[in-house]
Specification:
Layout lengths: L14 H19 L7 H25 L2 H25 L8 H21 L5 H21 L6 H28 L8
């Protein structure tokens, strides 16, 4: 008789870490965009470490789980935060000429285009994840429009970004609570 071995994945779900890194950093940056406080080191530090590095770590963990969507999303958006902070800092440090509104609008447009494709991929996932990606691609394109000369939408865009970030925080906490209590504490659809 031949014996068979079944390997069980006992690794933790990395998605809440990535979603919290993305969501909390997005809320804080967009509170700045809404005019609540100036852009300062708090937002930049969150962008490097929690929005950036935590999502990169989550993406690597999604690779280990065989989740192409999670790998692509978390690594990409983690690196988005790293590039965003460096775009801001390289100009301030005098390393390169600061980005202008035209190039920055195209940067944001391309991230919106990528996010639109990722949103399509969420159609096979929970409704809460669909909300995160829908509001994110809208956010990127609103930011692109703002930097393309439509500055008057800035505060609205900031509040839309706060909603986007909070939707990711909700999904992350729902996953943690639902897994912890082994029942639906917060629905995700």
């Amino acid at each position: 008789m031949a014996e068979s071995t079944q390997i069980v994945d006992t690794t933790a779900n990395p998605a809440p870490l990535g979603l919290l890194g993305f969501g909390m950093t997005t809320v804080l940056l967009n509170l700045h965009n809404a005019g609540i406080f100036p852009l300062d080191t708090m937002v930049l530090a969150m962008g490097i470490f929690y929005g950036g590095m935590a999502q990169i770590f989550a993406g690597w963990m999604e690779w280990k789980k065989g989740n192409t969507f999670g790998l692509t999303a978390f690594l990409s958006y983690g690196l988005f935060w790293e590039t965003l902070v460096f775009l801001i800092l390289m100009g301030k440090w005098g390393w390169f000429q600061p980005q202008n509104n035209t190039s920055f609008a195209w940067y944001l447009f391309m991230w919106g285009l990528f996010t639109f494709g990722m949103w399509i991929a969420t159609f096979k996932h929970a409704k809460a994840l669909q909300v995160v990606f829908f509001t994110l691609f809208v956010l990127f394109w609103l930011l692109a429009l703002e930097h393309a000369g439509f500055e008057s939408i800035g505060k609205f865009t900031g509040w839309e970004g706060v909603f986007c970030g909070l939707s990711a925080v909700y999904l992350a906490l729902a996953q943690v609570l639902n897994e912890t209590f082994d029942k639906t504490v917060l629905p995700v659809g």
